[in-house]
Design brief:
This protein is an alpha/beta fold. The protein has eight helices and seven strands.
């Protein structure tokens, strides 16, 4: 009997190796071609970043029916457009930058993307921790614009959306008499597309009047909704209807400005 030891048992690795054939090469080439074709067929996606405060922000389920106007905004566009809502409750231009939220946007902001910028509600109130002096507010807006353009993206400035605040005669009061015009002046100076959302929303709320305009805001009587058992009378934040109306205004203005992204609207909107 012949014994095989580790010295006498030798394996020819070259002989055991799988030799590629023309058929194998053909299959690999076909797979590679399919993968490349699939990647080439993928449509380029444009991202619309939304930065702002609670009037624009996504809301937690527990806050429903309170709705930021940025929440329904993505329904207006087809699959080639992504709406990335970075707005946050209670933020101003200053706190949005200081908390690193703007830096996070810049990490993924790319050429051809858009940044819709709507601040003012929290910047303008001296008693809030988010208060931003007027000169700093303007500088912060300029920072958003400059940084966006440096990435090859398109900035769009929006004046702060209207609050529902009527006087005793039934006239709607402008609650952004200083910071709204600062946005307009900055847009003009920097030659940035401007959406005067305050003017447009004030016109709608004024037309509806003190009572009917409640239908746009988060206004509930006690026991009307389980999230607000004691009721709520909020003249700043919207319900689903109000958010949709504000989002529609923004979209119509983007179309009026002839922004290229509006060529990619959803047929189901």
């Amino acid at each position: 009997m012949q014994l095989f030891t580790r010295h006498s048992f030798k394996v020819d690795l070259k002989a055991c190796a799988v030799k590629p054939t023309l058929k194998t090469y053909g299959r690999l080439t076909a797979i590679l071609f399919i993968c490349m074709s699939f990647s080439l067929l993928q449509p380029h996606k444009t991202t619309i970043y939304l930065i702002g405060d609670s009037t624009m922000a996504d809301k937690a389920v527990r806050a429903y029916p309170e709705t930021g106007w940025g929440m329904p905004f993505h329904y207006f566009f087809d699959s080639t457009v992504v709406v990335d809502n970075r707005a946050q409750n209670g933020r101003s231009t200053r706190t949005f930058i200081e908390e690193g939220r703007w830096k996070d946007v810049l990490k993924t902001l790319s050429k051809g993307d858009y940044v819709l910028i709507e601040f003012g509600h929290n910047d303008e109130v001296p008693t809030k921790r988010s208060y931003t002096p007027k000169d700093q507010f303007v500088r912060n807006l300029q920072t958003f614009v400059t940084d966006t353009r440096a990435k090859g993206a398109i900035p769009v400035l929006l004046t702060p959306v209207a609050r529902r605040h009527f006087d005793s005669t039934g006239k709607l009061i402008d609650t952004h008499p200083v910071y709204g015009p600062l946005v307009i002046q900055t847009a003009q100076k920097e030659q940035v597309p401007l959406i005067d959302l305050e003017k447009l929303s004030m016109a709608l709320v004024s037309r509806l009047g003190p009572e009917t305009s409640k239908m746009l805001y988060n206004q509930l009587e006690p026991g009307e909704h389980p999230h607000y058992p004691k009721g709520v009378h909020d003249d700043t934040h919207f319900n689903e209807l109000g958010a949709r109306k504000m989002a529609e205004m923004v979209l119509h203005e983007m179309i009026r400005l002839d922004l290229p992204v509006t060529k990619h609207l959803s047929p189901k909107r």
